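hey all, quick one before standup. I had two proteins in the batch that finished overnight and I want to keep them in one place so we stop losing track of which output belongs to which input. First protein below, input sequence then structure tokens straight from the run.
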Amino acid sequence: MSTPHVVVVMGVAGTGKTTIGPLVAEALGVPYAEGDDFHPAANVAKMSAGTPLDDTDRWPWLDAIGQWAHGRAGLGGVVSSSALKRGYRDRLRAAAPGLVFLHLTGERELIERRMRERKGHFMPTALLDSQFATLQPLDADEAGVAVDVSGTPEEITERAVAALRRLAG
């Protein structure tokens, strides 16, 4: 990318945000922040119990991510956040105008299989349906790209970085 943008790696649980985000950040030469680390303990407990978050739960989390992104404006960075709804992305952009979204997409069966294979994560596969039900893909007026998550992490990262560079012109 020609100028240092802040990229939000978004998508439903299990798409690989935590895997792909650091790889994209490394390829772009910018720092990475794990979006899950911005969740208050109450959110993690709620999700661990299999209860989806509501918007009241999400606002402080999104605001914390937005503050991090704002602090990286002009410097560049990559942060993960499900950012499933347009309203959530609008809230992030309000804190950090100029954000670019990298939407990791894929077939539900692939994502569920990957979720079952990962170890030590608080998000159960039982919440995947609620994630897909909540998901509002990027609108045409939103700065961002969608990248399919089939393939290896290296292949996904290569496609993502190429798409982000095309977007930046």
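OK second protein, same deal, sequence then tokens:
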Amino acid sequence: MIRLAVFDCDGTLADSQANICVAAERAFADAGLTPPPRDAIRRIVGLSLVEAMRVLLPGGDHMIHERLAAEYKAAFHDLRTSGALAEEPLFDGIVDVLDRLRSNGWVLGVATGKSDRGLAHILTEHGIADRFATLQTADRHPSKPSPAMLTAAMAEVGASAEDSVMIGDTSFDMAMAKAAGVRAVGVAWGYHGADELIAAGADVVATEVAALPGLLAA
């Protein structure tokens, strides 16, 4: 039996909100639009870019959403190449939890709205890329809450839905888990509140990082 634990990235493994907010603000400004408030930007973390822009600009058409997504990518690239990216720290205790889960026999994966390049950068920056057996990103899948990322992760490592779990900080992660038929574990240190996670289908919500191994074993 293969037990698979799939983590979201932004808001679950790492606190990436500063760079996401700056890139989104620049994208709107470069498109000649008023940037949305940061509270609104934080709430779309986890969605694929075009879908995120649709949520942030619900009155726009598909062409402007695609343009905003392209402007966001360009802004993030400029931040990275200019050395202006803010630190994207891992949440305290995450590395220990990853290592404890692996020692307990879990296979680990990531399912994120980030691009392949963005995910590779953050995992490499923190020296944790080798912990994960499967990496699923927005470059190859429809946006959460589609179950596509989890379906692909399970197929790649040979795990069943009954033996898999999705760990994330947003209602999008919980809805994706339910759509894929896997257990949904919310985390309270990210960008959506515990009540929202439960409403979206979370089976349980971890209030601290160190509690995750115990919750997965339950």
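Flagging for whoever picks this up: The chain is about 45% helix and 10% strand. The first strand starts at residue 3 and ends at 7.
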